[in-house]
Amino acid sequence: MSAFLPGLAPPLTVSQLNRQVRELIESELDMIWVAGELSNVKLASSGHWYFCLKDAEAAVDAAMFQGRARFLDFKPVDGMKVEARARVTLYEPRGKYQLVVEELRKSGLGALHEAFEKLKTRLGAEGLFDPDRKRELPLFPRAIGLVTSPAAAALRDMLSTLRQRAPMIPVILYPAPVQGGSAAPRIAAAIEIANARGEVDVLVVARGGGSLEDLWAFNEEIVARAIAGSAIPVVSGVGHETDFTIADFAADLRAPTPTAAAAAASPDREALAADVAALRRRLSRDLQRILETQSQRLDALARRLLTPAERIARQRETLTLHARRLRNAVAGRMELHAARLKAQRTALGHLDPTQVLGRGYSIVRDADGHIRHTSEGLAPDAALDITFSKGGAGVRVVKVEKSV
């Protein structure tokens, strides 16, 4: 049994000491950014990352737990220069101080984040992102425009979605690179070309996910102003659900992914067909109910018929009047519902590509089955396939004329 001098506090246990030191550190140091180089990077089976953050003169251990690590858009490796937003704490079992990392980014991204916030604030102050400027998307666009890279996986996903939802609506690609130094002005130029041609009723500006640097073209002022100045409503579908760009704020609608953007820009053919079928069923039920009601009225009137012949004749006149009213009511109701059904059929017919072909247009595909919109890239004697409203033809190019 230990003995203590009178008036002195008993000694702390090691765990008590470490707990007090941890509480002292956490109360004195708020969340901070620390820059350094990664070393001894390890990924545990739990999904937690452990590493050392060092510079030329010192090092500190750090941990990034799975709940935050899942938001990383890059893989940490030894030697990588990073900036960590972290809490300073003490790992009590070993009495070793460490960083608990909440956010990790490659060095230099801090300047990009700052540039993003500055541009967002400036354009927002101009009213470029005001909700009042946002326009409704057309319910039945005559054509849908896509501004993206022809090589992007996002393009394949969007085309697949559009084929499923609205195969009757033409899709026009306005190609532009979506990454690199020249991407932003070429994206803006593609938006302006789409507006100048007036071929589509809605534009989708999109690319798949990536790092902040990969998506940076969509944070450029020239792209934001092109989207805001577009006479055609614009849907932005850049990156993943957690990614936000300046283009998202400028667009009429922000979709979380390119696939969602394609869905937002197109009507759902199956849903439209279901609506028409529901209206048809409702019309049938209404007519049946009218006939049953009027039949019951006729039965009641018939039961009131009495002799002598004069009363019968008078009731016959009344019956004739009711029968006429019945016919007029049924005919009027049928005309009303027939008009509604016709309107629905007309609306659905507008989505039928053969209607467009019937007005003299045709679809031209090259030997690879791609739809051709211009003569660019065609060579004499190239094989083309033409689809008319009725039938088609295989042709060969005799002469190529460039558009002016």
From TrEMBL:
GO biological process: DNA catabolic process
Catalytic activity field: Exonucleolytic cleavage in either 5'- to 3'- or 3'- to 5'-direction to yield nucleoside 5'-phosphates
Record-annotated Exonuclease VII large subunit C-terminal domain positions: 128-346
Localization annotation: Cytoplasm
Entry GO MF terms: exodeoxyribonuclease VII activity; nucleic acid binding
KW Cytoplasm (keyword) present: yes
InterPro entries in the record: Exonuc_VII_L, Exonuc_VII_lsu_C, OB-fold_nuc-bd_dom
GO CC annotations, alphabetized: cytoplasm; exodeoxyribonuclease VII complex
EC number of this enzyme: 3.1.11.6
Source superkingdom: Bacteria
Keyword terms, alphabetized: Cytoplasm, Exonuclease, Hydrolase, Nuclease
Family per record: Belongs to the XseA family.
Record protein name field: Exodeoxyribonuclease 7 large subunit
Record organism: Usitatibacter rugosus
Phylogenetic lineage: Bacteria, Pseudomonadati, Pseudomonadota, Betaproteobacteria, Nitrosomonadales
